[in-house]
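Entry for S-adenosylmethionine complex. Fields follow.
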Amino acid sequence: MPTRHYPQISTPPIESDTEFLTAFQDHEFDRDFPEDIYQQSACHWTPLDVCQMAAQMLVEKPGTRVLDIGCGPGKFCAIGATATLGHFTGVEQRSRLVKAARELLDRHRITRVEIIHANITTVSFEAFDAFYLFNPFEENILPMLRIDHDVEMQPQLYDDYTLHVQQQLELKPLGTRIVTYYGSCAEVPECYTCIKTAYDGTLKLWEKTLSHLEDADADSPPAPCRFPHLV
Ligand SMILES: C[S@@+](CC[C@H](N)C(=O)[O-])C[C@H]1O[C@@H](n2cnc3c(N)ncnc32)[C@H](O)[C@@H]1O
């Protein structure tokens, strides 16, 4: 997990989407959030340059629909939509982060982004082409990563959420892309292959290379689950 220390700097005024992307250093961008959310940036929100690269890995053509699974205050979606021609949806379970994300988008008039206030287990992945995950569920099993006490935390929830995401991703067509930043990547099913890495291997691009049916029809037994305790 990256640890950064930021100087106190005031946010520059931004006039347009393009300026938004080029005007900020990472620490300046995070200063734009309310203080409590800013304080959690180093540990919990993806750095600006990583957001740009991840979005560019996911958006293969204009209009690619990207889902950020656990979007926090919307940093990846906001930067993704200004760095690419994709459409970004963030789903987030904490209302204060949803509010901050929507305010960020309004303040900078960023289009092609939607923030949904929901638990990921209620979201179908049918409407999306590509997926981004930065440690969404680890706080259920690693108390040091706990963001706040606003939502229930339990080790069982880590398994439930991870299994839901695995199952939804398994149903996606061949060629579907996922980017993960840090984390165990337990949400990524076996039918996806890691095809590229960056930032010392912490950023991973995955592509679906095996169909579900191919797996099921094969004479050999199915590939072992990466995390057997989840089956
Ligand atoms: C480490 S943060 C990453 C935020 C953002 N994706 C980024 O990269 O900047 C993980 C986020 O996932 C959210 N989250 C965790 N479990 C969730 C769930 N079951 N449904 C929706 N959001 C969830 C958390 O509230 C947190 O904001």
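NOTE: The two ends are 28 Å apart (CA to CA).
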